[in-house]
Amino acid sequence: MSDFKIEQNRELSIWEALIPVLVLVIMLGYNVLVFGDDALSGSNQFILLLGGAVAAIMGSLNKISLETMLDHVGRNIQSVAGA
C-alpha cells in the first residue's frame, strides 16, 4: 500500500471527459459507413490508436505528464493481464 502516491489533479468536467469517447464513436461510425462489411479489417485498429492519441492530447492539455499517462496505462494492462 505504501507504493501508491496520491496525485492532485484538476477534476474534469463531464464534457472534457467525454471528448475522447465521442471522437472515438464518431470515427468508428464513419469507418463503418465508409467500409461497410470490411470495417472489421485493419482500419479499426488505426482508429483505436487515434482515439488513444486524442485522450493523450486531452491529458497533456490538462498538464498530465506523458510518463504519468504511460505508467497508468501499464498498471491497467497489468491488472487485466490474467484474464
Topology:
Elements: H1 14-35, H2 43-61, H3 66-80
Description:
With 83 residues, the protein is mostly helical. Helices cover 67% and strands 0% of the residues. The protein has three helices and no strands. It has helices at residues 14-35, 43-61, 66-80. The protein is globular and about 45 Å long.
Distance between the termini: 23 Å
- Beta-strand content bin: under 5%
Q: Work out the helix count.
A: 3
> What is the H/E order?
HHH
Report helical residue fraction.
55-70%
Radius of gyration: 16 Å
Q: Give the CA-based shape.
A: globular
Find the count of extended strands (DSSP E, 2+ residues). Answer: 0
Q: Which structural category do the helix and sheet elements fall into?
A: mainly alpha
Mean pLDDT: 84
Biggest sheet details = none
Q: Runs with pLDDT <50, length 5+?
A: none
Regarding quaternary structure, how should these chains be classified?
A: single chain
Name a few traits of the molecule.
single chain, 83 residues, mainly alpha, globular
